[in-house]
């Protein structure tokens, strides 16, 4: 795992060498923050590898280089427009970029083509030399054409280059985006494992010319034998507990004169042994949400074996809608643990290491929310079912009782509380669209308001914990299909006039054809032409049947 993290860091460092160090241009790093970055390589989420690699590489970038940072897919799950230039290109931006990367949420799509285009425009690529470094673990998911974009940017740019790091992509997947780099004179780096990275380095970096042979140095005096390792830390959840060797992390920093963290040296995982240069360090031991740090001094010829006590336990949560029901994988589990800056959110069955103390766990399934406070002692494991207490409802609309199910467009379901407020309105609970709409609801009396085009029907129902039910709403409606050749507008009216002689308009379309579900009954249909002339026809719609009318 550590090797892979270093490999990805080396890949990014390669790009920093080929663009940052030797070209007097501005650079924007684009990081893929789509949901696929939660996938793991050797037990470590790819997003964490990317964050740590950025932190390591940016420390080696000269302070006067103007580096910017852009991300996509970090704010909305299904949006192809979720692209943001978070840090504009500027000198000394390393800290701002690493802070921005650490705060990203990884949940959206992969609009990589649009992101590269926006980055190029932000760099004024048609006026100045510009470089974009794209780090992605997936292919375009928003209908963009990276190959065509590469040709466009190369043709219209002053000196534009796009370097692409394919993070965890297969060779075939890499070929689909390598054209973006090839078409702009950039490099494509395959960062799937250390061996592949070495091959990429061999293909893209020319070996330096050999330097003149130095004068022979005097033979140094023999040094005393060094131990194989001079730093061998141990982490435990509680005093006297077994060492933690799986899923944990070690962060090594140079110590400043005041004892605080200085430059990062490395981040390693699991059981850790190392040879560190003599000096003072700050070591951070992490496991899950628990961490502890201490200052360690490395002395020549001696082995440091510090012990890190995390004072933490393991919490396992099984979110269930009702007692005995299966775990809901989509259930949101928010754990507000002691000393948390921001409560952590998980989904489905959750197992994590937390600082000892009272853990406030909030589970949400549909519209049901429940919170519990669970005491957790250091070194202990607590496994608990949390019952949210909801029933499951599937809603459908039918034109007639026992007839066809409405399954086209224009179908919507809104759920409100059955009990009216003092002003006669009801509290809205939730809504959904389309057939087979699903709801998880706390026990209560509700009203389902079903809409199919112009037909609207209310149906009360009751929810009990653990109950599964199909709510079938009979719309008592048919389908009216209207054709009006040459019309600019078609409008449907009730045939009965009110006391003022006006008829109620039910729906209209600016077209020569109009089709909609409508309650059974008699209707008048008016077609209007662009010359303000109009024609009228009448029609009777029967429940569960299709009525066709031509007005001309």
TrEMBL record:
Compositional bias segments (type: Basic and acidic residues): 543-552
SUPFAM superfamilies: vWA-like
All copies of domain VWFA, residue ranges: 26-205
Classification via Pfam families: VWA_2
Superkingdom of origin: Bacteria
Pro residues: bias regions: 209-224
Coiled coil: none
PROSITE patterns: VWFA
Residue ranges of the region described as Disordered: 203-224, 529-552
PANTHER family in the record: CALCIUM-ACTIVATED CHLORIDE CHANNEL REGULATOR, ZINC FINGER (C3HC4-TYPE RING FINGER) FAMILY PROTEIN
Name of this chain's protein: VWA domain-containing protein
